[in-house]
Amino acid sequence: MPRPLQWIAALGLAAAAALTSAQAQTHPGQAQLVAEVAKETGKDPSTLNSLLDGAKKQQSILDAISRPAEAKPWKDYRPIFLTDKRIDEGVAFYLEHRDLVERIGKQYGVAPEYIVAIVGVETFYGRNTGKYKVLDALVTLGLYYPPRAAFFREQLKVLLSLPDSMLGGPLDKLVGSYAGAQGWGQFMPSSIRDFGVDEDGDGHIDLHDSLPDILGSVANYFARHGWVSGGPVVARAQPDAAARPIQVKDSKPQWPLEQLMAWGYAPLQPMNPGQPSSLQTLEGPNGPEYWFTFQNFYVITKYNRSPLYALAVHQLAQAIAEGVREREATR
């Protein structure tokens, strides 16, 4: 048993070591994060620390997350994604990769035009996958952005925990969005872990350079979240003068369509009155627009929770499908 003076000295050394460790960390909370990842994965703490030491807090990332496009009204959001160029490029992409797109769509039970529309909205068919180092983005938002630190810290932890076979390249070289999403489909680390697929069978999930992996992972994401093959996404609704105001927390179907009809909203096309639905009211260029939304709309919001995003994906998908039909008709 140590003598009192020895015990005090030992305590002092321990405290000094702890202080030195805390002072040595490059980012706030780094030591605890490394300890968690090392314990859960067996990865070398010095390697993890080296990766994090090389990451930089980026003010431009903090600025970007404060002004998301989804804050715009629908009348301003829609023109960003529903352009002639994005539609034409989507049609060309679909036709160039038709066999692959349709095979994957059939395999996962997801309409192929929606798979194409996702990569069209996210990265303009792989052209704009982001300019930020993924590690910088997640360190910045996970360790320096209190409003959403819990979410992004978890994504950083997952990124550090992923096996090399899921990274698509050296971890400190990966590039993506300001939010840390990467690849053509802009998958966050937890989505790579949970929904990424090795569609080309090479032993790696590569969402940057393997088109089969990219499209297969998007389709798998939709399928795993409950996409209904052949099911509707949205339908326009027309309120009557006495229509009951509807407020929804999210896009999850809450009522049978006939209930919304009873509250004063009429579908502008024949619909199954018993199918689960919800209602979105958006600010269009000519005033409010009312949309019945269904399970497949809700699935798209699992990719991005904004109803504006989901409707943009839907309308781009419909425009691509129509463009493919028109090209075929002129052959």
UniProtKB/TrEMBL annotation:
Keyword line: Signal
Superkingdom field: Bacteria
PANTHER family: MEMBRANE-BOUND LYTIC MUREIN TRANSGLYCOSYLASE B
The UniProt record lists the keyword Signal: yes
Active site, renumbered: 122
Record has Signal as a keyword: yes
Boundaries of every Transglycosylase SLT domain copy: 31-318
Coiled coil: none
Xref: InterPro entries: Lysozyme-like_dom_sf, Lytic_transglycosylase_MltB, MltB-like, SLT_2
Species the sequence originates in: Dyella marensis
Protein name (Swiss-Prot/TrEMBL): Membrane-bound lytic murein transglycosylase B
Swiss-Prot/TrEMBL GO biological process terms: peptidoglycan catabolic process
GO molecular function, one term: peptidoglycan lytic transglycosylase activity
Signal peptide (UniProt feature, chain positions): 1-24
